[in-house]
Design brief:
The protein is mainly alpha-helical. It has 2 helices and no strands. Helix content is 78%, strand content 0%.
Length: 198
């Protein structure tokens, strides 16, 4: 009984010693973990530094982004102004093109009107020229017929001996002239040569 108690005490003492040794080792490890120069402490410090640096970088990026946005807005405003100017120029060009088309249309209508008038005048001139040509031909035929009648009368009087000579101071009748229109109707009538009848 006594030896058993001693054995139990020895086992208990060994267990306590092992527990104390384990606690000592655990305490050393915890101190190493909480040390700022190594372990988790160092990792926490590095994490804090990285977080602060990232915040600074975020602020810098945000500032640069805002500046870029401002510049982009300024460029967009200029583009909008240029667009408005371009639209104004296009509207002005459209108005000028419309005015030019209107003037060309009026000019074409005026040209057509003048062409129609010239065509009508040409047709009227042709009709009048044709009528004038016919009138001249009729006049030539009448003159020829009158001349033939006068010549027959003179021959008849000469044959019968009743031809009265012209007085010296009297004016002899001039032979009729051919007033037919030649190839150019604007040159006027051309004289015609006659043969003296025996």
């Amino acid at each position: 009984m006594t030896s058993m108690n001693i054995t139990l005490d020895i086992i208990l003492l060994l267990s306590c010693g092992m527990a104390i040794f384990y606690c000592y080792m655990l305490n050393r490890r915890l101190k190493a973990l909480h040390d700022l120069k190594s372990g988790i402490g160092e990792a926490v410090v590095d994490l804090a530094k990285a977080t602060k640096s990232s915040q600074e970088v975020s602020v810098t990026i945000a500032t640069q982004t805002q500046e870029a946005i401002n510049e982009l807005n300024a460029v967009l405003d200029q583009v909008q102004d240029y667009r408005q100017e371009a639209e104004d120029i296009l509207q002005n060009l459209d108005g000028q093109v419309h005015q030019a088309r209107t003037k060309i249309s009026k000019s074409l209508k005026g040209t057509e009107t003048v062409t129609e008038k010239l065509t009508s005048l040409n047709e009227r001139s042709r009709i009048e020229l044709k009528a004038l040509t016919q009138a001249v031909e009729i006049a030539n035929k009448v003159n020829a017929l009158t001349r033939d009648q006068m010549l027959q009368k003179v021959r008849h009087q000469k044959k019968e001996g009743t031809l009265t000579p012209f007085p010296q101071n009297s004016v002899r009748p001039t032979p009729p002239q051919d007033t037919s229109i030649k190839s150019n109707p604007f040159h006027g009538p051309q004289p015609q040569q006659y043969r003296r009848h025996s």
